[in-house]
Amino acid sequence: MDLGLAGKKAIIVGGARGIGYAIAETLAREGCELAISARSADAVKDSVAQLKRYDTRVVGGAVDVKKPDVYRKWLAKAVEQLEGCDILIPITSAGGGVGSEKYWEKAFEVDVMGPVRAVDVVLPHMAKQQSGSIVLLATTSAGEAMGGPQPYNAMKASLITWGKQLALAHGKDGIRVNVVSPGPIEFGGGNWEMIKDTMTKFYDATLRQQPLGRFGQPEEIARCVAFIASPAASWVNGAHLTVDGGFTNRTHF
Amino acid sequence: MDVKRQVKIERVAAEVAGNGTPVAKAPDPKLGYDRIPVDRYISRDFMKLEWEHVWTKVWLLAGRSDDIPEPGDYICSEIGTESVLIVRQPDGSVKAFHNVCLHRGNRLRPVGIGHGAENFQCMYHHWTYGLDGAIAHIPDKSSFPQGCPPGGRIRPLPAGEWGSFVWFSLNPEAEPLLDYLDPVHAHLSPYHFERMRMVRDVTVEWDCNWKTSVDAFNESYHVQGIHPQLMWYLDDVNLQIDCFGKHNRYLIPFGTISPRKDLPSQIPPPIQYMMEKAGMDPAEWDGPMTAIRKAIQRHMRNHGQAKGRDYSELNDDQLTDDYHYMIFPNVTLNTHADDLMLFRQRPHPDDPDKMYYDIWMFELPDSEKDDPDEEYRRPKHQFFRYGDKSIGLVLDQDAFNLPNVQKGMHSSGFQGLWLGDQELRIRHFHSVLDQYLQQGGAL
User: Fold this and answer.
1) Preferred mutation among A46, A67, A109, A197 to probe B, highest tally of B CBs within 10 A
2) Distance from CA of A197 to the nearest CA of B (A)
3) Nearest in space to A93 (alpha carbons), one of B264, B104, B143
4) For the segment A42-54, what is each residue's pLDDT rounded down to a tens digit?
5) ipTM of the complex as predicted
6) Residue B184 to residue A129: CA distance in whole angstroms
7) What distances in angstroms separate CA B61 from CA A215, B184, B217, B348, B380, one per listed residue?
8) A35, B158, B162, B369 - which has most CB atoms within 10 Å?
9) Whole-structure pTM value
10) Catalytic residue flag (residue A152)
């Protein structure tokens, strides 16, 4: 099946590591042109260099999504550099944390306003060309308890609601919006690698709950995101896809 | 080195350290790369040599000065087959003598700490000794026409105090204590251990040679193997090893992530804990992961006083890092600004495959957190065998490993330790041990 991604222009906010990088790599392999961002300049530089081996246009920028002006400027520049934007995947996250109010602020700024600001900048371009695809990344922790009551879970949950409503509002402009919720994903430099060493009991208990007996890998999320983002998924809109190897318990009727 | 990142650790400069703990790297001794022969870990003959040339020659750590503040307070300390009484004298000094009645050889006191003794009376026939070990009374003395044993006292032993610790030696000719400890006593005095309080006092019998245990704490090369969680808050690669005469140390950066790990996107829980302990809110942190260590140092420097802590003699790195000292032959000190984790390794009296591992933990009081109405209570000494109880995750990991190392050393396929540069302190320790064996006494 041809996904129809070749030549599409994609912006990935938070594309230098983990799931974000895997998405960037999958799209690059399919022939997308890419703009990626991350907070660390070194990480962006390394990732851009690695993605260029797929022989496609790749640009990058070191951006802190908590700084709205700089962030918006970069997004506008990315659209300019790519000469358009067909796909937007904003995946930034401040991660977990229980207790301090500061975690709410960070999760709001990074997990929520990161995507919101990106969508605001990109929507007019997509509306103008009457086509576009946006994929938001939430988490299985939005729907099922994980790691205690914390802003990460609640803020990610808000993306599921917002994503659906975006889909309803902008379908008329040929813009599809969908949400993907990954379960626990393990990779070098990822949180589960750290949890494995520092909170071994929690890691083992979570692993035991995995029907397939392992955690997911970034590429397994990336392939689903790439499909949903692609023209091959032209009739998928307002969907929320859980990609977790069967980890969550609830049956979706 | 098998690392994922090149890490440059920022260390305080020697000039900045001033008169406190020296930080300059000592030149590495040229000790070669020969195998360390395995006999010394498993042979009873070697054990006897060690007893003759090391244990009966060196200074040994007995306990805490503040455990015996008043005249007549004493520590009864055991090493190998010997038992020694170290007693606070009316003039405030400490004196040591063998814990044995000259009459029939009974031990005068059980091992441990005692308070307010007026004398030491043997349970057997009530021979009685003064606080200095001199015979004070022999019941029915006239029935000993030969008089009392020569000297009229239990043989005295050298005793002394340094750093709020009490020391003794089985060697009547031992050099002065501070000469023996040189230069480590000067390195450690800025920590002011006397301000710290004991919070844990445990002895575990381990199924390994005492040196198998000493070696385990003298290198960080094993962190990747048996302490994976430590790689999330210390740098096991960029440490500074220094050998000084008999003793040695390494300086391990804490509050930073091992170069063997990719940088995570979230602050690892153990570093979060360090930040919280210093009074920081990890949620507030917005800088790079690699800058946290210095930030903790700055925060402690600025806020230590509120907790009633005086860091004025410590350099910034000492506020986070582990300055890990080893006093030959058997004392390991994990020194930190707010606490001290001390290990003492003692040989079993007759089995080279067993040892006693003492854990003494000390902490500075925290005037912000401590309940002023709650009086400090010294923990009771606990003794158990390996496996009966947990001694904490990291030490459990070591404890689980060591009996297997000891068993492995009995293999005919193993000739000795094949040490690398990261294990220089082990090589240095064994070279000092060899010097004692060759010279048959004090260096």
Assistant:
1) A197
2) 5
3) B264
4) 999 999 999 999 9
5) 0.87
6) 74
7) 50, 14, 18, 16, 19
8) A35
9) 0.91
10) yes
